[in-house]
Amino acid sequence: MAIRLEDFLFPDPKDSEDEQFKIDSPEKADWALRKYAQAKRIVDEYTRQRDDMIVRANEWLAEVSKPYLDTMNRMEALLQEYHREQLRQNPKAKTIKRPVGTLKSVTRNKWHYREDDLLRWLKQHRPDLVRIKEEPNKQQLKKVAKIQGDRVYTEDGERVEGVMVMPETEFKIEVE
């Protein structure tokens, strides 16, 4: 079997299989980054294959379900028409139980709002029904605040209560 150029140019460090393996040189870091990139490419490919399979499975489901969904829609329309006729004859027959299933008619009041008009009217006539949401403007605070240690201060040196600053280090690996 022929050796790959990458394996020839960048052989595995001698102790890479050892549980105590440690990256202690730029060459070992390069080797580890190559291994990381290789594994990432494989996982990305598996993810792409999975996504393709999901798309195909959804297309298959839509195709095989279409005639049954059409039947369901047609039967629903016919059953709704039948139920309406039964309600016309007996307005109290909102539920019709049959051995195979139940037909139900539920009437609810659906509220539709024009938010601006409603808010204007409530402010004038029923301010107790207006909710005011107070919250800190954190973006603006960050622009005007000064940080000393883990504390936050205003421009004129007053300490801001209720906030602390904790440094967080994020580790990232970027490979092509």
Structure description:
The protein has helices at about 5-10, 25-90, 115-125, 140-145, and strands at about 95, 100-105, 145-150, 150-155. The protein is built from four helices and four strands, in the order ααββααββ. The strands form two sheets. Strands 1-2 form a two-stranded antiparallel sheet. It has a two-stranded antiparallel ribbon with strand order 3-4. It has about 180 residues and is mainly α. It is flat. Helices cover about 50% and strands about 5% of the residues. β1 (about 95) and β2 (about 100-105) form a beta hairpin. The chain starts with a helix and ends in a 23-residue tail after the last strand.
Elements, N to C (H/E): HHEEHHEE
Average pLDDT, rounded to a whole number, is: 90
Assess the beta-strand content as a share of residues.
5-15%
The main sheet comes to: 2 strands, antiparallel
State Rg: 34 Å
Which parts are unreliable, with pLDDT below 50 for 5 consecutive residues or more?
Answer: none
Distance from N terminus to C terminus (CA atoms, Å) equals 28 Å
- The total count of strands amounts to 4
Features:
single chain, 176 residues, mainly alpha, two-stranded antiparallel ribbon, two-stranded antiparallel sheet, 7% strand
Fold topology:
Elements: H1 5-9, H2 26-89, E1 95-97, E2 102-104, H3 115-125, H4 138-144, E3 146-148, E4 151-153
Antiparallel strand pairs: 1-2, 3-4
